[in-house]
Amino acid sequence: MTKEEEQNGRDDMLIDDPEHQNAQLDAFPDGFNPNYLKVYYGRLFPHADMFKWMSYGNDGKHPACDQSYFGRREFSFTLDNDIYLRFQSFNSASELENGIKDKCPFKIDIGPVYSVDPSKRLAYAQSGDNIFTPVERELVFDIDISDYDDARYCCSGADVCLDCWPLMTIAVKVIDTALRDDFGFNHILWVYSGRRGVHCWVCDGKARRLNNEQRAAIADYFRLYKGNSNSKSKVSLLGPALHPFLVRSYVDVLRDFFEEKLLCSQQLLSDERYEKILEMIPDESITSELRGKWQDSRRPASGKDVNVVRWEQLKHLLQSGKQKAPGIRRCVEEIVFSFTYPRLDMEVSKHMNHLLKAPFCVHPKTGRVCVPINPAICDEFDPTNVPTLSKLLGEINTAGLQAEGDKVWDRTSMGKSIRYFRESFLQPLLKSCKEEIEGSHSVKVQQAKNSLNW
Amino acid sequence: MEVVRSQKKPSSAAASADVVSNIPLYRSPPTLEVRLEDFERFAVDRLLVLRGISDGLARGKKPDEMEKLVNDLWKANMRHPQASEVINKDIISHFVLRLVYCRTEELRKWFLSIETTLFRYRFRLESSDVHRALMTELGIPYKVVTNAEFEGLKDKLTQVARSVSQPLPTSDGTYYKVPFEEVPELVASRRVFIQKGYAYVALNQVVSFIIPHFRSHLSKALVLTNRKWTSMIREQEKDRLTPIVEALSTSYLGPDYSQAKELGEMSLKDIDQVARTAFPLCMRHLFDTLREDHHLKHGGRMQLGLFLKGVGLKLDDALAFWKAEFSQKVGAERFDKEYAYGIRHNYGKEGKRTDYTPYSCQKIILSTPGVGDHHGCPYRHFSEENLRAALGKMGVSSRALDDVIEKAKTKHYQLACTLTYEAVHGSSCDAGINHPNQYFSDSQKILEAKKLSTA
């Protein structure tokens, strides 16, 4: 009997006949289970990769490598029964792995790299002067679809379906493009949060060293909503022109998405729903004209979707040459932005010491793994098809007796994700870190040589 | 910085740097020798500028007005007979005031805020060469955008300029390319075009990223100065610089009204009418209380008594005045025995014969009246209800009243008094009220002028 089978203690698990695979998969009920989690941490969670990532090249042998770096990173574990352990730190890959396997946390969060080992922070508090302080931390973003509840009708709260998920997809596109083209960042990891959103980890050295003010500035650069709880989605696009970032986002992503997907999938101009959009137009004569058209009309003869037809009419009226007030012409963009523009959680991005869930965790409510999302093909990402614990365990079982050691993950649905993580994110990142470490080292050596000369 | 008593001429700090800038960044204390007299005098002159700026801000002056105010204040106070010494005076006065204002959190906050404002407006008045010199000095890695680059970016730069209603970029204008982290303010408000990690900053936006550098540097410097002060300097200099430094932060810098020469005499028969029309609220309150209760406790007697001296009340008249009131409560004999001496003392006729000066607003505001006292600053101590009633009695219209109350609530007591003055007399007081006797003499001038014009 294999280890997992011992743990599960059920004889009917011992099936190596491929014919019975389907039955096997059904044998693991959906959702989350601490026992499954143990197996997951034992066979699938990429401990070594996480260690390499968090070391940023400092686990090497080069003299400039900072051996204390990994040990100064804060992790936090949420255990069963909501027990919360903060300021966990580990000094090596094996310590990290054993710590996780040992405690079997329901959730792992990653915090900043501090000036000293976080588990020793209290010793330094005495000397005043803030010796214990974050020194590095990835630039992170958190986008949650429940913040879009006034832009979608199909679901609300924690639910997600294929009609509203695309809102996340376009948020990824807009932010990712800006991070690369505007801010010049290269090492960006997008991760499914396991239930209803996405996280973004920007890992360039420059990003990790940003202070709180600079992080807040970037978050504000992305911020568009100025409303309060009454007008949460109120977007105000003042000025005779839009900033190039907003123009690009609109033209490349938002407008087409709105007109070709969202209008119809959410039936935004249906009889019950068009009033909400009309409310965004500050001109009574226009809104009453539109209302008049729409209250009377039956289904359009052309067979075109009623939402599309009505949107054309609305645009035509607002953007016609007759409209003098710039605010009126701008309404079309405002409507599109207010439904589709990314809604970020500002607080997450602004503070270096904010803890964020680690990639490859399993979401306790859905059992789904927090897998990376490839921004280049994010349109293809399907949140309803993300590997779950139970599915993975079934796959392990099938693969278990044939595969050996750590290659088990490759025989499961995790394989694709881990390969992507390693090849598209980790390897380029580590290469760049190595160059950075070695580069700054030789600069220092040169400086030392120069200063000794005289 | 070495402070000497001799007449030695200080050497120039500016000569070493070939900087075009005449706005110093105050990065490190100058290695000059300073005469002791200059040490205090320069600081006082700069303090007048800083206080003027503080006042302007509290009054809500707009940026254009502030720019003019700063320029005027600087010209009026920071001159020096020798042109080459002007920049030294600037640097020395700043560093002396650092000593003065490093000592508490509140002082540091005030100094930081006002010096930053001063820097901001001086910067605005300077040329782009100076801006570039400052950026270099601050170690900001900027590059000037070449013409070729500019042509490639022109559309985007124009778009940004239009989006924030700024002047449109022209090919003969200057744009700087800086790493976006250097200009978080501009990035946050999307006032710059950024590409591949660089922000393209227009000339008129340069101030918004120089200021935070200036500010954060000064903030850290003040904390360090405080440490040095408490651990070393204060003790070392206790016979020489320390008394000057400690006095400067609370000093009142205007005329002291100890000799009421300008006004001539104040006669007793006029006093009630004058109290109604020309006394500031603090003195009006004390006066009315005295008339009503026929008594005032010590703090009130000092504050009102010295004020009346400054107003021109002669000693004999003062004695008669106080006696007339007090004898209604304690009897003439007891007055002569217990209170007359005090009044004579105030006029310098007893004891060590110091001719005491009437209290400035600063001193009055800092005083702490207890139960049964009526002195101190009413804008600070009166409840809103009482303040409204008292101001109403003075004839302040209800609209002005709300402004006054608001200023009092936000602890701008002198400003509240100034607004009261302006409401009562219907004319503005640009300099602000700093001394009850100033309120009185200015009021008298206006009333005289009114009398003449209607005569």
UniProtKB/TrEMBL annotation, chain A:
Please indicate which superkingdom the organism of origin belongs to.
Eukaryota
Annotated protein name in UniProt: Uncharacterized protein
- Native organism is Arctium lappa
TrEMBL record, chain B:
What organism is the protein native to?
A: Arctium lappa
Protein name, per record = Uncharacterized protein
